[in-house]
Structures are given as C-alpha cells and as structure tokens.
Amino acid sequence: MSEREKLEADLLEDEEEENEDTQEDKYLTFVLNKEDFGIEIRYVTEIIGIQNVTEVPDMPLYVKGVINLRGKVIPVMDVRLRFGIEERPYDDRTCIIVINIDEQPVGLIVDRVLEVLDIQKSEIEPPPKMRKGKNNKFIQGMGKVGEQVKILLNANKLLFDEEESA
Amino acid sequence: MDSDLEERLEMVKDFVTESRELLDSVEPRIIDMERTATDSGVVDEEILNEVFRLFHSLKGTAAFLDLQTIISVTHEAETLLDILRKNKAYIKTEHVDLLCRTSDLIRNILDTVERQLTDDGFEVEAGFIINDLRNAINPPAELDVAGPGILSPGADSSAQETGPEQEEEYKQIESMDAPVTATVKQLIESVEPDGLAEPLDLTGMVLTITPEMARRFAEETQELCEEAEMALLSLEKTANAELSSQVFRAFHSIKGNAGFFGYGDIENLSHLAENVLGIIRERKQVCDQATMPVLLSVLDAISNKVLGTTSGVNQAIPNFQQLIGSLEKITAELESEHEETASSQEQDLTGLNYSASNFLLQSQEYKPVAAAQDRAVKSATDKVLPDARIEDPGIVDSSILPKQPASSNVQQVIRVDIEKLDKLLDLVGELVIAEAMVTNDETVDISQDARFGKAFLQLDKISREIQEVAMSMRMIPLAGVFRRMLRLVRDLANKANKQVELEIIGEDTEVDKTIIEQISDPLVHLIRNAVDHGIESVAERRLAGKPETGKVTIEAKHSAGEVWITVEDDGGGLNREKIFRKGVEKGLIREEDRDMKDEDVWRLIFEPGFSTAEQVSNISGRGVGMDVVRRNIEKLRGKLNIRSKPGIGTMFAVRIPLTLAIIEGMVIRVGHNRYIIPISSIKESFRPKSDQITCTPDNLEIVRIRGELLPVARLHELYHIDPKYKDLTEGILIYVDSNDNKCCLFVDELIGQQQIVIKGLPAYLKRVRGISGCAIMGDGEVGMIMDIADLVSSIEKNAS
C-alpha cells in the first residue's frame, strides 16, 4: 500500500471506531459500599442476579469461585474484597456484572447496579495524584455527572493486576 | 498472519456468494439463448452480451483471488461467447450444453473454494472442459453447417493428430489432455468405426473425472505407498509371502489407478516394482540390501508426485530414468537367477484388481472407460487382463482374495464438515447434562415408579450410546502416525551409523483428529533426539554390555481421561551435569540451584536454542526441536513428563487431555463443597476403623487396607474447608490410584456416581492444585474435578 493509501486507511479506521454504535463514553454504573462506580460498557456482556458460587481452592481471597452461566463456567470476583473493603452479605439486589476482556469472561459481584450513563471525556478528571492505599491503580478517572462523582474503573487492571490487595 | 487469513476468508466468502448469484443469473440466460435462437441459430444479441458479461465478471473476481482454474475455464467460455457474439454466429445445442457444464463445474469448484480457500484439485476436470470449449471455438466458416452437434473438422483433426502418437503418449503422459483424446479415440474406434460420430458429447458423458476422484486417487495412492513401505521394511528382515504379496498388491493397485488417471510415469514405476516384488514373493525371499533402497525411493517418488497433484502440480519425477534403470537392473539380475515369474503373477491378478476396479466402479459411468483403460493398460504392460472382471467385481471370489490390509478398506466413506461434528459433540455434552438434571430433580423419584424407572433407564442407555458414537466419530487411531516413524528410525539410524529398532505399542489407541495433526511433529523430534543423542553407537553399546541394536519404543494408551504417548529409548540417558552447566551458562539457572530436582533439570532442554550437542549435525543439535515439541504440546493443553537414568535410557511422556471428555465421576462432599473424582482413579472407598489407622510423630496418618499401607490426605486441610467430620472413622476414605500415585482421600460423604462432562477451568483462574477441570452438575451448580496425580504430588510437596 502506498503512503497515501495507508494514511487513508488509518483515518477511516479511526472514524469507524468513533461511529461504532459509540460504546465510547458510556459507562455502566454500580454501587459499592455507598460509593458510585462506573465501568466502560463495551466490556460488559451481561448483568445477572447473584447466584450460588462454587468455591475454587487456591485462589486469592477476592476470587470467590465460579458460576454456571448457561452452561459456561465463569469465574467471579467480589469487587469489595478486591478493594480490601469488608465483605457484605449478598441480598436480592446484589448483582454479577459479567465483563469480557481478551476473550476471558469474569463476573464482578457488586452491591447494586444503577444505570448506563454517558460521560464525556471532558467531564472526566484524571485519578487523584495523592497515593493513599493501593486501590488507586484500579481507577481510570473520576467522572462528573451533574452534582455527583462516579469513580471510573480500569477494567483491565481490575482483572489482571497482580499485586495482592487482600 | 492470522488477520491475512481472516481477510482472505472474508473475501473468499464474498466471492463465493457473489459468484453463486452470478451463476444463478447466468444459467437461465443460457437457456434463454437456446430458446430464443432462431432455427438457423441466430441468437438475441442482448442475451448473448449479458451472458458474456456475466462470465467476464466471474473471471474478474476469480482473478482477484488468484483462482487459476476458474480463471482459465471462464476465459474459454468467454472466448466462445465472444466469437458467437462478434460473428453473430449460430449457436448450437452443444454450445449451450458446454456452457451449462462450465457453469456446473464452476459451482463444484466454488464449493471447494468455500472450504479450502483454493481451487486446487479440479485441474483434470477443468482440462476436459477447456478442451471441449476450444474444440467448439472454431473459425466461423465451419459453423455454417446446419444441425446440432455436428463436429467441426477442427475437432476431428485434433483427435486424429494425436492418433498415431496416442499409444506413445499414453506410455509417457505428462500433460492432462493426452489421455482424453487417447481414450476417446479408442472408444470411438470401438463404437464408431468411421470416427465421425459425436465424440464431443461422448467426452462429456464418459470422461468425467470428478475432483473427488482425483483427491481420492491421491489419498489412496499415498496410503498404498505407506502400506507398501511398512511391509517392505518388515520384508527386510523376514521372508514372508504374505508381506511380499501385500507390497505387490500395493504396487499393482497404484499402477492401475495411475493408469486410469493418465500418470504414465507412476504407472511405469509401479509396473517395474511390481515385477521385482513378484520375483521376491515367488522365491519367498527377503528384500535384500540392494533392492530395498531402490524400492523405497520408488515409493517416495510416487508419494511425492501424488502429493504434488493435489495442489494442482503435475511435475515430472526427478530421477525417473534412474529409478527405471535401477528397477530394470534388479529385475534382470533376479530373473537371470530364476526363470518363471509371469505365470504365477497372472493367477493372482484375478483378485488383485479388486481394489483398483472397486475404486473405479464407485460410479457406474466409468465402465466404458474402465474397459478402455484396460485395453490401454494392456498395450502398455503386455499383460492379459480379462475385461469381465473389471466390469463386475461381484465375480471376484472372496476365497481368492488375499487378506485385505486395513487401510485399503472397502467401507463407504462420507465427508463431513468438521464443524458439524463439533456441533454434534457439543450437543451430546449438553444432553448428558440435561439428563443428569432430570435424574437429580427432587420432584422425580425414580425408585417409586417402576414404569418411569424403566423408561428412564432406556433413555440413559440410548444417550450413552449416542455419546460413544459421537465421540468415536472424530477419533482416529494413532497407527498411521506411529507407522510413519518406522521409516524415520531406519533412515536416521543409517545416517548416524547406529543400529536402532522401533517398537510400537498401542497403535490402535484412538485420539481426536486435532491431536493427530499436532502430535506428528513433536513425535518426530523426540524420536530424532532419541536416535541421534540417546542411543549410543554400536561400539559404545558393546562396551556397556548392552545389545548392539538400540531400541526406541513409542507407546500410546488412554489413562484417566488423558492420552499418554511415550517415547522411550534404552540409550545413555540425559546428562545431568552437561544440561545443568548449559543452563547456568545460558543464565536460566544459578550455580546454587545445583540440588534442584532431576525433572526440573530435564525441563531446561525445552528452552529455545538449548542444545548440549557439541556438533550440529544435519539432523539435530541446533536446539530447535524441543522448543517445537513444547509449543505443540501446549497447544493441545498437554503436559510433558521426563524420566531419565544415566546409562539406562530416557523416557518422554506426553499427556494430552481428551477434548470433549465425558467421564464417569464419583461426587463427594467435603463441608459445603462438592468434588468429582474420576471413577477410573478410584480403587475403593470405605469407612476406616480406628485400629486401621496409625499416626506417625509427624502427624502423618497412615491407613492399613488389605495389607497395604497408604497415606491419608485430608482434603479439608488441603483446601481449607470446614468439614463435617474431622474424625477419620466418621467420614469416608477413598483409596485413589493414579499411575502408582496412591493415597486415601478423607471426605465427608459419597454423594453418588454421575456422568460428567468435563469443561476446562477458566483460563483466568490459572493453576489450581489437584484440580484438572470443572463440570456442571445435575442441579446446575459447578463441581471441581480432581486430578489425582497432581493432588498426590502436591500433598507430597506440602509434607516435605
């Protein structure tokens, strides 16, 4: 391909990404320990009510085990424990948000699921610079929605960052 | 690279769909052409243009994807149409037929393109059509002759041109066209003495070698070559009439098939080889040192050439003349020692044509050509083969038939898309789960209602059978892969000047198709290493008091849901010092790690670029082989175990999980958790009495059962679960054994036996001690499947 063609292709790709149903800038918000969090909707495949989790030995504390999702076995993580916050007994509002990164589905157990919100990049502040505690690495940014602030999480780090937080 | 492939896949899919649509619109128009043509053959110009354009588009898109066969065929059709269009020529029925045939051929090709992304394998058939199209493309003058189906002089002369040379050509065929005209001519001669009747139409009817056939020819010939090779290798050591007959038959079949397809060179080679074998068989000899390499080379040459034809290449056999010369020389030598060969050969030919003619007779169309081939074979080989036999295999007396080797079987075979098979297997798995859910449903009590119980048993029985059949569909015995190693070992041993023999155990073990494809390379590397590095030279072995001939054993067996494939040699074993030092040199380990376990030292050899060979030989020593082995095995989600003892030998064991495994599992409970133990690992279960249990000062519990002393593994301790029972005499002990890793597992209770569909653990979870996978239980929850071997070793690790 000539230089010019390559350039055109690149531009087209960029455009496409933007036009793609724009899953960009959309976040699924949920509640954890009375704070509002958000995660990019493009990673979310489904949301289900809490169900029985089968324990798996040898896992970090925050990996509660696996569940049967329509015939597929999916690992689930308790996000509270991931953040080192105290566990809370599951009730009928507790949900599992199933996200999929790199073809690996993982369920996130959260207190309550709220709604899908549009948060423009201009409304997102970078994560706080002050390092207090180890959970900051999971924060991608702070989103301002009206009067409220939603803590936007980095799905990748949430799933794969190795440092033990519990 | 993958995205390139994906892109091509996309393009091909689009192309196929688009082309099919094009063909769909072309065909009715072609018929229209015929319909609307006036009696003298004038065609509606518009329709003609349209059809032309459609073929032209086909050609264009095919060119974009580089599908040569489609391009050439459409080009010829286009040319024909162009002539018709330019000259406002007269269309004939035969033209329409031709165009329709072209369209059909292209459809067939499209089907294949859809699957394999290329249009290989259609060269023969395409050749025929192109020929016909060319014959139909004539100077306009000829077309003035009215009436359908009249042969133009052009075509006639082309048939006649090759006439006198036809016999010659038939013997030395390198091009595709020759057999067409040759056999047509013979056919014409037999049917129409004046040679002017409608050969074109006959061509269409008789000589349709479908791509299926061409491919099967290639496959069958290769199988025959492999068979012959193996029998030959055995013949080297023992004189056995059965073996020599086998080789003879193989060559004979190859000769027959090759003749039909017009591969004169293969035909000739096989004919001469057949002669040699005939003599050997007659005299009940072994295949001596001089003859063996020649015959093996002939097999190689044939196999390679046939391999080439599947990708559309008809190349000349490189050392053809040499091989012919050697074969003739050997024959002469053998014959000069003994007289009669011909007569006994004749007899056995009766039954021996069976496989060749059976192959040909899959479709009734071929009868006339078979007869023609027969005559051609006769002229080429000077043997008398009665016609009657070929046309009616039913005549062949089964008592005459020598035992047919397994691979040239007469079974009906059908091609199935692997995706369909996969889908079927998935569904079967879900059937098992669903069935378990029904059985375990609390509202259903099978024991109460006898009729329901019976019905359910029936359901169970049938679904088990479905499972077995479904799984067996994708399974192929390892025999094919293993046997190819015989030749490898022989060649390697010769090159390295060592004496090595290969022992094969368990070749009937069946594994999934994907495993067969992936296991071949690693096997080759492992065997190469065994022969090149493992087995010592004859002198060294003598010094060590070992038999001069080294032994390499490959074995395959099923064990606990896995397939074990081992390569073992009785050579010098791995050199721990050398490997350790090399590892330190490469920075993979440190000097202080000197005391690391043997198995960990052995694993170092899998690092890329790792080799302790002082000299890099042609065969090995570059440090590439083992890396490939490891990667391929990883691809199959397998594991590799290595054992080695200096002076005694080395063993590599590859363990691969069966992909969709439905196993019998025993569900047990510890605390709130349920685990599944493969039944195959369980020896027995019991509740121990206190006098059976001994406790060592280290707090290791030993239980005595039937005179054996076994360690007790408390699962709740291992997995940090709160159990119901802590006292051994209150719970259940399960005596498990996995490849001589024995112990007794302490659990709360046995829940019951169940059929389990194994699902791999999600990748996210990485490795879990003692767990090989998970399963969906009858009540919809997930159960962990235990890996006994791993469990025992991790317990041992914990203890130490």
Task: Figure out the total of helices of chain A.
Answer: 3
CATH structural fold name of chain A: OB fold (Dihydrolipoamide Acetyltransferase, E2P)
Summed up, the domain count of chain B is 5
**Unreliable residue runs of chain A:** none
| SS elements, strand count of chain B | 18
Assign an overall shape of chain B.
globular
CATH superfamily of chain A: CheA-289, Domain 4
Residues in β-strands, percent of chain B: 5-15%
Largest sheet of chain B: 6 strands, mixed
Structural class of chain B: alpha+beta
Low-confidence stretches of chain B: 139-207, 339-409
What would you report as the Rg of chain A, rounded to the nearest angstrom?
A: 18 Å
Computed over alpha carbons, the radius of gyration of chain B is: 34 Å
Q: Which structural class best describes the helix and strand composition of chain A? A: alpha+beta
What is the CA–CA distance across the termini of chain A?
Answer: 51 Å
For the record, the CATH class of the largest domain in chain B is Alpha Beta
- Domain count of chain A, please report it: 1
Number of strands of chain A: 11
Strands ordered across the widest β-sheet of chain A: 8-1-2-11-10-9
Task: Report the major sheet of chain A.
Answer: 6 strands, mixed
Question: What's the gist of this structure?
Answer:
The complex is a heterodimer of chains A (about 170) and B (about 800). Chain A is an alpha+beta fold and about 170 residues long.
Which short descriptors sum up this protein?
heterodimer, A: 166 residues, alpha+beta, OB fold (Dihydrolipoamide Acetyltransferase, E2P), 6-stranded mixed sheet, 5-stranded mixed sheet, 16% helix, 42% strand, B: 800 residues, Four Helix Bundle (Hemerythrin (Met), subunit A), 18 strands, 14% strand, globular
Would you kindly provide a written description of the structure presented here, covering whatever features stand out?
By secondary structure, chain A is an alpha+beta fold. Chain A has a single domain, classed as CheA-289, Domain 4 (OB fold (Dihydrolipoamide Acetyltransferase, E2P)). In chain A, 16% of the residues lie in helices and 42% in strands. The longest helix of chain A has 17 residues, at 3-19. Chain A contains three helices and eleven strands. In chain A, the strands form two sheets. Chain A has a six-stranded mixed β-sheet. By secondary structure, chain B is of the alpha+beta class. Chain B contains 27 helices and 18 strands. In chain B, helix 12 runs antiparallel to helix 13. Mean pLDDT of chain B is 73; it is low at 139-207 and 339-409. Chain A binds chain B through residues 52, 54-59, 63, 65-68, 71-75, 104-106, 159, and chain B through 430, 433, 672-674, 718-721, 759, 761-765, 767-771, 774, 776, 780-784.
